[in-house]
Amino acid sequence: MIITNLPCEYMTNPLAIDTARPRLIWELRDDRRGARQSAYQIQVAIDEAALHEGAADLWDSGKVASDQSAHVAYAGKALGSGQRAWWRVRAWDAEGQPGEWSVAAWWEMGLLERAAWQGQWIGAMLAGGPQTTSPAPFVRTRFTLNRPVVHARLYATALGEPTFAAAWAEGRALTPEQAIAYALADPVNHATEANRVAQPGQSSAAPCRPMAP
User: Fold this and answer.
1) φ/ψ of residue 11, rounded to 5
2) Residue 130 lies in a domain
3) Domain that holds residue 19
4) Which residues contact 118 (CB under 8 A, 6 or more apart)?
5) Can you tell me the distance from the alpha carbon of 166 to that of 172, in angstroms, rounded to the nearest whole number?
6) What percent of the chain has pLDDT over 90?
7) Least confident of 45-54, 57-66, 84-93, 139-148
8) Is residue 131 part of a domain?
């Protein structure tokens, strides 16, 4: 019995999970007639190396007698804003024989409380007239990093229901993972030079939860 495809909240290795008990799913592959899962075990750790060593320091479900392989809620230690959790699962077949551990997957928590937001509101004066629409503000900033980029996250939100965008770095659009309250992008692969440019481009985003300035 082989386990493949480990989505969390229906997404593979998702960013910006905003529920304290995300639901885990796995797919089973077994060519034997009548094959089924009789039990499972989930392990969750703070990093991949610890997980492979069996050090499930966030959660170890132990052997659970169940054929459930979808919507299994995480039941480990509370996770903080921006924290990444690595997980794997194995299953027992109908004869009670355990399969191999799955490959590791992960999910990353979003910003779970207001205090986690460290940014500032930005904007521009609107221009236009009775017969014209106001153009979208265009903002751009340049910053310099003196060390190689190992880990980076770009969070963006807006009031109301705007068309607000993915970020751009070095002339290329960064593809955001969309969440209800904000867009989140991982720009690390696009920020490898000493000088960085971050600017919003235009794309559709999910509606944003209003936040007071």
Assistant:
1) -125, 145
2) no
3) 1-112
4) none
5) 10
6) 42
7) 139-148
8) no
